């Protein structure tokens, strides 16, 4: 079995805990100790925040490693140095090196991927690593590092079966990436913020809260993105920032990244340049398909669906038809409520047993049509409107991107 197929075969393994990843890193000589780390967790927006922070640090002159998940088209997207994915030959060589240790320790897919990223960063001499938390925080493999800064973007209703059952439980798990004396930032609200605040106090973690200690103000839609003003309450400093990302919710994610970069030593000009060039594929990503507009968005929980709805209205991207496919373990009813009434719906699925049967979703979308093949679903949607939005799962978005590039679908679990 080739190294990547071996790794993918481990997707079904899931056992929360840090024992295996710590043992694996010890066997590798603790590569995670070779550079400072920023951890970025949260229910939604952590990928955008991580990518923007990496861009800011690069603009500040650091050699930066970035680890994100899941990938869309190619596994190599997850592990980048200076914005470039890990070369295939290095990926395969590192997997071959890791394999005997991982098998001995019964490490999971995500634990192997995390160790691989940390080892690659050490060997590439990165001066800073930005790691996107996979699931939760306290027991996530990325939390085997010792961050110099932590971010919890927000706390929402996702993965309750693992992290819950309540929102307060989810918040406590996410606060697990806080460290004593190490700055942390959040844009959380309500009871989630209350728990994060209490956990930060107990750990003696200095916590910066969006809407209290810093602000994202004057958010406006631009033809190709958005603009907003970052204002710091403590100093009175203010900076107008522009970005290529769509959706007013992205102003919060970018504000978190901007202040994080500043706390890590980036100057304001580096912050401005990094935010301006930050991208996050699969999050309201705009493409042309046969001369028509295609929008790809990985919204996969109720909060994400509501943010998508608001973004489409904010940027004047309605009317549109929708191609939707959900994972089985999501709150389908709440997502349907958020997206209902925006336009005609075609229900589909991605190539994994984790994908929900689109026929089972029909009661939530009266009048919708089921087309099981995603590209055929696109054809159907474009027969109804000249703009189509694909949403409901990053795995669906990834499959559509792969298929548009002429690549076969991947069976995805993680």
Automatic annotation (TrEMBL):
Catalytic activity: (6S)-5,6,7,8-tetrahydrofolyl-(gamma-L-Glu)(n) + L-glutamate + ATP = (6S)-5,6,7,8-tetrahydrofolyl-(gamma-L-Glu)(n+1) + ADP + phosphate + H(+)
A Pfam entry, by short name: Mur_ligase_M
Cofactors named for this entry: Mg(2+)
Domain of life, source organism: Bacteria
Keyword flag Repressor: no
Gene3D superfamilies, per the entry: Mur ligase, C-terminal domain (3.90.190.20), Mur-like, catalytic domain (3.40.1190.10)
Record domain Mur ligase C-terminal: where: 282-393
Enzyme Commission designation: 6.3.2.17
InterPro entries noted in UniProt: Folylpolyglutamate_synth (IPR001645), Mur-like_cat_sf (IPR036565), Mur_ligase_C (IPR004101), Mur_ligase_C_dom_sf (IPR036615), Mur_ligase_cen (IPR013221)
GO cellular component: cytoplasm
Mur ligase central domain sequence ranges: 40-259
Gene Ontology molecular function terms on file: ATP binding; dihydrofolate synthase activity; metal ion binding; tetrahydrofolylpolyglutamate synthase activity
UniProt keyword list: ATP-binding, Ligase, Magnesium, Metal-binding, Nucleotide-binding
UniProt family annotation: Belongs to the folylpolyglutamate synthase family.
Protein name: tetrahydrofolate synthase
């Amino acid at each position: 079995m080739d190294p990547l197929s071996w790794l993918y075969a481990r997707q079904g393994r899931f056992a929360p805990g840090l024992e295996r990843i710590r043992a694996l890193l010890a066997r590798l000589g603790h590569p995670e100790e070779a550079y400072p780390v920023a951890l970025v967790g949260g229910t939604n927006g952590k990928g955008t925040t991580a990518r923007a922070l990496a861009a800011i640090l690069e603009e500040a002159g650091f050699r930066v490693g970035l680890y994100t998940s899941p990938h869309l088209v190619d596994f190599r997207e997850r592990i980048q140095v200076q914005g470039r994915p890990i070369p295939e030959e290095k990926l395969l060589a590192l997997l071959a090196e890791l394999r005997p240790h991982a098998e001995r320790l019964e490490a999971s897919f995500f634990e192997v991927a995390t160790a691989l990223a940390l080892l690659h960063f050490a060997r590439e001499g990165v001066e800073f690593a930005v790691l996107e938390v996979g699931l939760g925080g306290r027991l996530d493999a990325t939390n085997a590092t010792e961050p110099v800064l932590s971010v919890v973007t927000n706390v929402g209703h996702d993965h309750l079966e693992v992290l819950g059952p309540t929102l307060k439980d989810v918040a406590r798990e996410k606060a697990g990436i806080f460290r004593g004396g190490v700055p942390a930032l959040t844009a959380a609200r309500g009871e989630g913020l209350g728990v994060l605040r209490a956990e930060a106090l107990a750990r003696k973690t200095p916590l910066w809260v969006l809407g209290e200690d810093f602000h994202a103000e004057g958010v406006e839609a631009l033809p190709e993105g958005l603009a907003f003003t970052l204002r710091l309450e403590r100093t009175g400093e203010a900076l107008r920032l522009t970005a290529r990302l769509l959706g007013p919710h992205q102003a919060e994610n970018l504000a978190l990244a901007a202040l994080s970069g500043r706390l890590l030593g980036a100057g304001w000009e580096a912050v401005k340049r990094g935010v301006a060039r930050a991208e996050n594929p699969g999050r309201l990503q705009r493409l042309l398909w046969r001369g028509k507009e295609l929008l790809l968005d990985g919204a996969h929980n109720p909060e994400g669906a509501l943010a998508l709805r608001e973004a489409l209205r904010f940027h004047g991207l309605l009317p549109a038809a929708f191609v939707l496919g959900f994972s089985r373990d999501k709150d389908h009813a709440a997502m349907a409520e958020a997206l209902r009434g925006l336009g005609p719906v075609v229900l589909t699925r991605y190539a994994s047993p984790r994908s929900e049967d689109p026929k089972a979703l029909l009661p939530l979308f009266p009048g919708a049509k089921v087309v099981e093949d995603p590209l055929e679903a696109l054809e159907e949607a474009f027969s109804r409107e000249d703009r189509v939005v694909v949403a409901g799962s990053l795995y669906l978005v990834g499959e559509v991107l792969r298929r548009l590039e002429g690549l076969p679908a991947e069976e995805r679990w993680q």
